[in-house]
TrEMBL record:
Organism: Actinidia chinensis var. chinensis
Protein name, per record: E3 ubiquitin-protein like
One Pfam family matching this protein: zf-RING_2
GO CC list: membrane
Entry GO MF terms: zinc ion binding
Length: 133
């Protein structure tokens, strides 16, 4: 009888101790891994280059009524009014508010709708020199 009482008291204590030891071990491992993580070198992000202000100025500037591919701006999801200034993406002819397009294109040089790549100098077409005359 005395042995049963002893076991009833001792076993939960032993179980608690085991759990506590495992918990301390896990905590120690977690702290160790955290310290190792601080030595990792920061990963350089390959940032996509946007267009500069002079390059943005070369893009066609129109008004809302001249847009051919619909009058909804995909950047702010608002309607482009007939009298509002808009920017036209050369090639795919998608149009956006002037401010929306410039904000977007200064960060990345792709069309927000179709992801068409904008070349910095799309209109520099050099005719070949070997003309027949
Ligand atoms: Zn917009
Ligand atoms: Zn487009």
């Amino acid at each position: 009888m005395l042995l049963l009482i002893f076991l009833a008291l001792f076993l939960p204590c032993a179980g608690m101790s085991a759990v506590f030891v495992v918990y301390i071990c896990l905590l120690w491992f977690a702290t160790n891994n955290h310290h190792q993580g601080e030595f990792r070198l920061p990963v350089k992000q390959a940032a996509e280059k946007g267009l500069s202000a002079p390059e943005l100025e070369k893009l066609p500037r129109v008004t809302g009524e001249e847009l051919v591919m619909g009058t909804e701006c995909a950047v702010c999801l608002d309607e482009i009014e007939r009298e509002q200034p808009a920017r036209l993406v050369p090639g795919c002819n998608h149009g956006f508010h002037l401010q929306c397009a410039d904000t977007w294109l200064s960060k990345r040089s792709v069309c927000p709708v179709c992801r068409a790549k904008l070349e910095p100098h799309p209109f520099n077409f050099n005719p070949p020199d070997d003309s027949p005359c």
